[in-house]
């Protein structure tokens, strides 16, 4: 939820993205209003369009997987971006006994419920591990 130098911004509810451009008060307002989100690469052909610190981070991450990067390039995939956060709305939950949890929420276009559930499970596992360490 914060800008890196050279950040590329995903426009909420679409596949559009823009940047890099200097982080200013207008971008800060748009970020707070969930109009834009920091983005991450969907690796493919062409140069990484991110600037400076953001590009360095992305190149370091993909450098750990040269075969995957090469395969995506060889398959002809074009570089694209995906938002790194979701504007989750209307969250509700209900326990059915001790073993079943029903979740309800609304997501913007292009978002996946499985990503939300995975984050919830990862967070629960991390909290359980912290509790075990205490």
Automatic annotation (TrEMBL):
<dbReference type="InterPro" id="IPR050170">
    <property type="entry name" value="TruD_pseudoU_synthase"/>
</dbReference>
<dbReference type="InterPro" id="IPR043165">
    <property type="entry name" value="TruD_insert_sf"/>
</dbReference>
<dbReference type="GO" id="GO:0003723">
    <property type="term" value="F:RNA binding"/>
</dbReference>
<dbReference type="GO" id="GO:0001522">
    <property type="term" value="P:pseudouridine synthesis"/>
</dbReference>
<protein>
    <submittedName>
        <fullName>tRNA pseudouridine synthase D</fullName>
        <ecNumber>5.4.99.-</ecNumber>
    </submittedName>
</protein>
<dbReference type="InterPro" id="IPR020103">
    <property type="entry name" value="PsdUridine_synth_cat_dom_sf"/>
</dbReference>
<keyword id="KW-0413">Isomerase</keyword>
<dbReference type="GO" id="GO:0009982">
    <property type="term" value="F:pseudouridine synthase activity"/>
</dbReference>
<dbReference type="GO" id="GO:0005829">
    <property type="term" value="C:cytosol"/>
</dbReference>
